[in-house]
């Protein structure tokens, strides 16, 4: 009876988190009915991509026409775009469903993937911690974080990127769970420990290939997981006293793991370019045909050579992107939210646009994270680094793997123009680290006092929830008097 009751309560808890995630991401999704921030690029690119198979250029002042319903006023010339197509195909799916002139349609797929990311995080947390309670806590913290909410409500690429990164990580955990058992058993039974076919590692490659097909930063986690698989399994063989463990683990198993992971990621990436490949009007699509091919790759088909040339130009754009922007933010300040990005701000006098406040209304959408979640996550990250150095705990290592793979490259590339909302891509791992730290802190407090431990945990969750309610208006564009908007801008750098 107790087991059935416990299971029922767990289902209710999971469902409650998903309801909260859905409400915060779907409520009034179509507001504002205009393109905000970089939606001006991705929404229009999504439309031409779905209509023509590749992105087209737009005339000056196209946003006004687009927002008024004239969504097909694009030009005949192909556009040079610097991000792969998959994220824009996803945006286009919502536009196909609800219509390209509907702002809800622009954002629908992003919102759905944002909700799904909460569910994924709970699955990942359960895989790591084997605790429904901790999994629910992880999902709850992501569901109520303002940065995750804002990025899930705007037709940008980062929320979709986060979903596929986390999906790839989940597949990776399943692969590790199974493959490590098989390797250990094979060594104990003096059998060949080389695993040739690893379907979950293949799926990891597919998911991370999809992530890289949204933004190239997906490659960071692909590289991190690839290195982890090779070296962790080599160490497993060493600790299991397998003869020739370096040859077996690094060279033989490493080669098979590479084949399972990397070619599938590359194939997935190329498949997302099919519209460009099969058509003839995409940017630089005919470059190879118009230029005599030279060098060792001259045997490749024209489309491959043209695509390679296109990617050279994209790479050049990214590495040379140093143009100043009012909302650029150094990566060292990301974790504590020093410079959030303002996506939208407008003020309305009473009686206009539904404003009923006598002193007028302010409407803002700012990618501002819950400060208590983020500061706590940063402290937890430092603690986990210390603990991992001391004890080499595998679960901590896995959490740090995701964080380091997706964060450190941005620190290295800090001269490039970057924005704080990029941090949403590794936010799930920061929350996992926070949850793990809370668990360990609670265990220490339980030794002294169960009551105090429970009060501390409930108090922290309550503070985070109160902050969520307080900042929700500036995450979603709710109408506020100017003074109340200003009250939520705690730091001058938040404005």
Describe the structure.
The chain has 495 residues and is mainly α. The chain has three domains: 1-156, no CATH class; 166-319, no CATH class; 324-495, no CATH class. The chain is 65% helix and 3% strand. The chain is built from 19 helices and three strands. The chain has helices at 2-26, 39-52, 62-67, 86-98, 103-129, 132-143, 146-152, 158-188, 199-212, 218-239, 245-271, 274-278, 287-290, 302-319, 371-391, 394-412, 427-448, 450-476, 482-487, and strands at residues 342-348, 361-366, 479-480. Strands 1-2-3 form a three-stranded antiparallel beta sheet. Helix 5 (103-129) packs across helix 7, helix 7 (146-152) runs parallel beside helix 18 (450-476) and helix 15 crosses helix 17. It starts with a helix and ends in an 8-residue tail after the last helix. The mean pLDDT is 92.
Short overview:
This protein is mainly alpha-helical. The protein has helices spanning 2-26, 39-52, 62-67, 86-98, 103-129, 132-143, 146-152, 158-188, 199-212, 218-239, 245-271, 274-278, 287-290, 302-319, 371-391, 394-412, 427-448, 450-476, 482-487, and strands at 342-348, 361-366, 479-480.
């Amino acid at each position: 009876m107790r087991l059935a009751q416990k299971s029922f309560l767990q289902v209710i808890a999971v469902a409650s988190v998903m309801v909260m995630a859905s409400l915060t991401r779907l409520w009034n999704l179509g507001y504002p009915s205009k393109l905000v921030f970089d939606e001006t690029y991705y929404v229009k690119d999504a439309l031409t991509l779905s209509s023509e198979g590749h992105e087209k250029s737009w005339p000056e002042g196209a946003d006004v026409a687009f927002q008024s319903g004239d969504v097909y006023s694009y030009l005949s010339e192909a556009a040079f775009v610097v991000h792969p197509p998959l994220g824009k195909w996803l945006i286009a799916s919502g536009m196909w469903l609800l219509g390209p002139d509907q702002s809800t349609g622009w954002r629908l797929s992003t919102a759905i993937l944002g909700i799904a990311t909460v569910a994924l995080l709970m699955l990942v947390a359960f895989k790591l911690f084997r605790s429904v309670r901790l999994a629910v806590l992880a999902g709850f913290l992501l569901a109520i974080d303002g940065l995750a909410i804002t990025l899930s409500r705007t037709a940008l690429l980062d929320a979709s990127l986060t979903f596929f990164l986390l999906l790839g990580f989940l597949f990776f955990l399943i692969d590790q769970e199974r493959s490590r058992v098989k390797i250990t058993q094979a060594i104990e039974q003096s059998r060949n420990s080389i695993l040739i076919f690893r379907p979950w590692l293949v799926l990891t490659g597919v998911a991370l290939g999809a992530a890289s097909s949204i933004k190239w930063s997906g490659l960071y986690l692909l590289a991190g997981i690839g290195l982890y698989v090779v070296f962790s399994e080599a160490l497993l063989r060493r600790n299991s006293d397998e003869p020739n463990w370096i040859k077996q683990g690094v060279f033989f198993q490493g080669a098979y793991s590479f084949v399972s992971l990397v070619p599938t990621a590359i194939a997935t990436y190329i498949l997302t370019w099919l519209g460009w490949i099969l058509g003839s009007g995409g940017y630089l699509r005919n470059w190879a045909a118009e230029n005599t091919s030279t060098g060792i790759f001259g045997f490749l088909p024209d489309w491959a050579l043209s695509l390679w040339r296109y990617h050279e130009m994209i790479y050049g754009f990214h590495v040379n992107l140093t143009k100043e922007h009012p909302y650029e933010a150094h990566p060292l300040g990301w974790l504590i939210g020093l410079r959030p990005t303002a996506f939208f701000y407008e003020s309305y006098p009473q009686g206009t646009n539904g404003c009923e406040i006598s002193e007028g209304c302010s409407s803002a959408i700012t990618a501002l994270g819950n400060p208590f979640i983020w500061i706590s996550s940063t402290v937890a990250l430092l603690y986990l680094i210390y603990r991992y150095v001391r004890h080499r705990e595998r679960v901590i290592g896995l959490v740090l793997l995701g964080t380091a793979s997706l964060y450190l490259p941005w620190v290295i590339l800090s001269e490039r123009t970057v924005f704080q909302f990029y941090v949403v891509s590794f936010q799930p791992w920061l929350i996992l680290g926070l949850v793990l730290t809370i668990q360990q802190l609670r265990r220490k407090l339980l030794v002294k006092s169960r009551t105090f431990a429970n009060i501390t945990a409930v108090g922290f969750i309550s503070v985070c929830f109160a902050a969520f309610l307080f900042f929700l208006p500036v995450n979603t564009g709710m109408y506020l008097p100017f003074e109340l908007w200003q009250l939520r801008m705690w730091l001058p750098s938040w404005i």
